[in-house]
Amino acid sequence: MKKIIIGGTHSGCGKTTVTCAVLQALCNRKLKVSSFKCGPDYIDTMFHEKIIGTSAHNLDSFFCDDNTLRYLLNQNGSKYDISVIEGVMGFYDGVNGRGSADSVSRITDTGAIIVIDCKGMSDSVGAVMKGYLSYRENNIIGFIFNRLPEKLVPKIKQICSELNTQYFGFMPANKITVESRHLGLVTADEIADLKNKMQYLGVLAEKHIEIDKIMEYSESNIPEFTSPIIKKYSFERKPVIAVAKDSAFCFLYSDNIEILKRLGCEIRYFSPIADEKIPEADGLILCGGYPELYAEKLSQNKSMLCDVYEKINGGMPTIAECGGFMYLHKEIEVSSEKSYKMAGIIDGKAFKTERLQRFGYIRMKSENDNLISKKGESVSAHEFHYFESSAVGSDFNAEKADGRNWKCGYGNKNLYAGFPHLYFYSDIKIAESFVEKCELFGGINEQNQ
């Protein structure tokens, strides 16, 4: 397995566009390609999946210790010709040395190519390059130059030579644009003619990015690791987990689903927009997404709302994160003029604000024994939302690295609901606790039938 990181100088520099272009060019060469995203992002991996035709994964050094990070890279990349890892924000951006593309690069011993947005620059590109190369010890092996006029290529190659770094090509300004929304890019499923657009980027990459050189400089070694210990349950009947998955609920880590399967669960996907009820199941996951964009359709599906209300009130173990948490409210207010009725588990209103309410990694300390943890235990999580709630919850105490803290979320024996997103590999006991309670609930249901 070869591996490479494509990082960037900052959010918006073009690293997702460049990564998708490189992925498409590699796939066009009939190579088996796996892809990853540094950090907690959901949306970029959706674009990766449309190109490579299989699941994309996250590599997050805040959520995971070094050993787990190396394991996940090997587990999800070792059967492929090359793994392409897209960075997050600026290359060095993280929390106390964790969470950044730089940290993932060093932990996994992976060479990094930095994307620079060259619009409006010429010689100053060299200053940016020198800064990234010399800021601290790193695994940067070279650069790709986004929106670079072709006439400047000789000058840029000369600067690379002077700085003793590699030139990996450029992407010219082009007609492919991906719109943004308050949580980042629009999702891949919302873009018309996406396949042709990605093919166009692949053609540009084959012409202007040095794909052969990327393959040449991709390292094949991964530092030593041990596989994390995952319980082996002997269930008489597999616990069934119903997982929301449609246009409104699409922020879902593939690794979370995979670990539930490894713990012995069967996954059944359903659509809160289109289906009449939850499929037969022992547990429920309502993941994040954009329920506010589909609030009218969600509200009109009264049979689903009633079923969700009855199942959760009846004790079905449920994880509801961010958008899923909003769905459990009495109503979602999408504007000052429009509100829509929702499931009613949470006695409050989710409402739109004009700025980011919470952003970044947190540790959540449990105030009581609950579905995912015991009283006094802490779990890692991530928040990123513009909506707020009149009933945000108080069963967890969230704390950021800078000491700021606040109460959040709902936790009882069968429910975790809140704005923070969970990643099961940060603490496998979260998934194990959830699965055990699902199996118990399913057994009780069978006895009562």
Low-confidence stretches: none
CATH fold call of the largest domain: Rossmann fold
Number of strands: 25
Amount of beta strand: 25-35%
- Report the average pLDDT across residues: 94
Q: Tally the structural domains.
A: 2
Radius of gyration: 23 Å
Structural class: alpha/beta
Which bin fits the share of residues in helices? Answer: 25-40%
What strand line-up does the widest sheet have? 3-2-4-1-5-6-7
Defining key terms:
449 residues; Rossmann fold; 13 helices
How would you portray this structure in words?
The chain has helices spanning 15-28, 43-52, 66-77, 101-107, 124-134, 153-162, 194-208, 211-217, 254-262, 295-300, 302-313, 323-327, 428-448; strands spanning 2-8, 33-38, 57-59, 82-86, 112-117, 140-146, 166-171, 180-181, 184-185, 240-244, 249-251, 266-270, 283-286, 288-289, 318-321, 329-333, 339-341, 346-352, 358-366, 378-385, 387-389, 396-399, 405-408, 410-412, 415-418. It is α/β, with parallel strands linked by helices. It has two domains: 2-217, P-loop containing nucleotide triphosphate hydrolases (Rossmann fold, 3-Layer(aba) Sandwich); 240-448, Rossmann fold. The radius of gyration is 23 Å and the shape is globular.
